[in-house]
Design brief:
Helices cover 36% and strands 25% of the residues. It has helices at residues 16-31, 46-57, 64-74, 76-91, 123-130, 157-167, 201-209, 217-226, 243-247, 289-299, 325-343, 370-380, 404-414, and strands at residues 3-8, 35-40, 96-99, 106-108, 117-120, 134-137, 141-143, 149-151, 172-177, 198-200, 230-234, 251-254, 268-272, 275-284, 304-309, 316-324, 347-351, 354-360, 387-391, 394-400. The strands form five sheets. Strands 3-6-2-1-9-11-12-10 form an eight-stranded mixed beta sheet, with helices on both faces. The protein has a four-stranded antiparallel beta sheet with strand order 13-18-20-19, sandwiched between helices. It has a four-stranded antiparallel beta sheet with strand order 15-16-14-17, covered by helices on one side. Helix 1 packs across helix 4 and helix 10 packs across helix 11. The chain binds adenosine-5'-diphosphate (ADP), aspartic acid and magnesium ion. The site of adenosine-5'-diphosphate has 18 residues, from loops.
């Protein structure tokens, strides 16, 4: 008997018919003798609908009081899902009980709309499992130290599931979704993308942090920290396929490099349309300037990603960096009011029509010339590179958003990532 956590995403929970299918699949695992904790997301489109309602009522302001209510509203999507799934499990003849995050409780910090899980008390869940029940817990939700409901950021149900698996020392966490695993790149953009049987934890972390939305980055961080065996697989296979076959399907996240079976230099391509570029022009090229600019941005709790500083002319330089598009307006306002005058900047400009495209692979550590293949491929397509950033196992470029798909397809081909014909 194993303790298994299943997570089902929005599309997998997208209709009552699909929820019944999820229940049948879970029942199959229970009848095979396993203990199951199931973490579903809201039905597809529901979180967007709820946040859309909030925006109709409050289109402009985004302060802490507003964000608290956004979490209050958004978390209800998952409450409906757990109730429906629990009913469907009962209809399968199982004993099932559903909980909101605060009922477990899943404790988080108070950063509304992007809270971090701090602890999970699993005693209630363990008691239910011992009594023979399937426990269904809301994804995406938590509760802070003062009892306020929080959410974990978009895509956060992955993190709920992995965190529950970590807290309970589950034997495996299975992330059921609408694709049958992790691909070399998003198969919606490149239909020739290839499914990876395994991907190393480090590569998965980079892919997720660089924009591959198949797993929320914090779920991968949790899996790494607590060594949670993690697999991404399809919820769209027939529910009654052989359990042993299902258990080996999809993509396994591996922790040992030598377990990696596919030895490609580049394992995948990620892209991200969520960033915007800001340039502070004509600041004095002297010590302390980067701190003056980025310190102010950090103090407002805005994360900065790619940074470049240009060479100086006549003692002046330009300083560019990217932030999340959601933070763009706030960052621009702050720079114009607090930083421009203090630094003597000539002008502050912004561009929201950019994207970041990245190649990822642990093989890059031992192979030279990978980045230059990337740059050559983009130049052959006539794509101008605005910013570059590298680490041991990735190279990212910032380019005009309108070339994103072209860039991803060209790079996918250049690095031989397509399926064998
Ligand atoms: P869920 O609702 O199950 O959480 P998501 O939409 O969050 O599903 O994540 C699955 C989607 O991630 C896929 O439909 C796919 O379009 C996208 N995706 C992006 N990059 C990748 C990748 N490298 N491999 C697989 N899927 C990817
Ligand atoms: N329902 C939430 C969202 O849409 C969480 C999730 O699906 O993982 O972002
Ligand atoms: Mg998701």
């Amino acid at each position: 008997m194993a303790l298994i956590v299943h997570k089902y995403g929005g599309t997998s929970m997208g209709s009552t018919e699909r929820i019944r299918n999820v229940a049948k699949r879970v029942a199959k695992w229970v009848r095979a003798g396993h203990q199951l904790v199931v973490v579903p997301s809201a039905m597809s489109g529901e979180t967007n609908r709820l946040l859309g309602l909030a925006k109709e009522v409050q289109p402009q302001k985004v302060d802490e009081a507003v964000m608290r209510e956004l979490d209050m509203i958004a978390c209800t999507g998952e409450q409906v899902s757990v109730g429906l799934l629990s009913l469907a499990l009962q209809a399968e003849g199982l004993q099932a009980v559903s909980y909101n995050g605060w009922q477990v409780p899943i404790k988080t910090d108070s950063a509304y709309t992007k809270a971090r899980i701090e602890s999970i008390d699993d005693s209630r869940v363990r008691a239910d499992l011992a009594a023979g029940k399937v426990v269904v817990i809301t994804g995406f939700q938590g509760v802070d130290g003062q009892g306020h409901i929080t959410t974990l950021g978009r895509g956060g149900s992955d993190t709920s599931a992995v965190a529950v698996a970590a807290a309970m020392k589950a034997d495996e966490c299975l992330i059921y979704t609408d694709v049958d695993g992790v691909y070399t790149t998003d198969p919606r953009i490149v239909p020739e993308a290839r499914r990876l049987q395994t991907i190393s934890f480090e590569e998965m972390l980079e892919m997720a942090s660089l924009g591959s939305k198949v797993l929320q980055i914090r779920s991968v961080e949790f899996a790494g920290k607590y060594r949670v065996p993690l697999r991404v697989l399809s919820s769209f296979t027939p529910w009654d396929i052989d359990l042993a076959e299902e258990a080996k399907s999809g993509t396994l996240i591996t922790f040992e490099e030598d377990e990696k079976m596919e030895q490609a230099v580049v394992s995948g391509i990620a892209f991200n349309r969520d960033e915007a570029k800001i340039t502070v022009m004509g600041v004095p090229d002297k010590p302390g300037i980067a701190y003056q600019i980025l310190g102010a941005v950090a103090a407002a709790n805005i994360d900065v990603d790619v940074i470049i500083q240009n060479v100086s002319h006549d003692g002046k330089t330009d300083f560019s960096f990217t932030v999340h598009r959601n933070d763009y307006q706030r960052a621009m306002d702050l720079l114009k009011t607090q930083v421009a005058g203090a630094t003597g900047a000539r002008e502050i400009t912004g561009d929201t029509k950019i994207c970041k495209v990245s190649i990822v692979g642990i093989g890059m550590r031992s192979h030279a010339g990978v980045a230059s293949t990337m740059f050559r491929t983009l130049s052959e397509e006539g794509i101008n590179i605005q910013m570059i950033t590298t680490s041991e196992i990735k190279t990212s470029v910032v380019i005009d958003e309108k070339y994103m798909e072209l860039a991803v397809r060209a790079l996918h081909k250049a690095f031989d990532l397509e399926q064998a014909a």
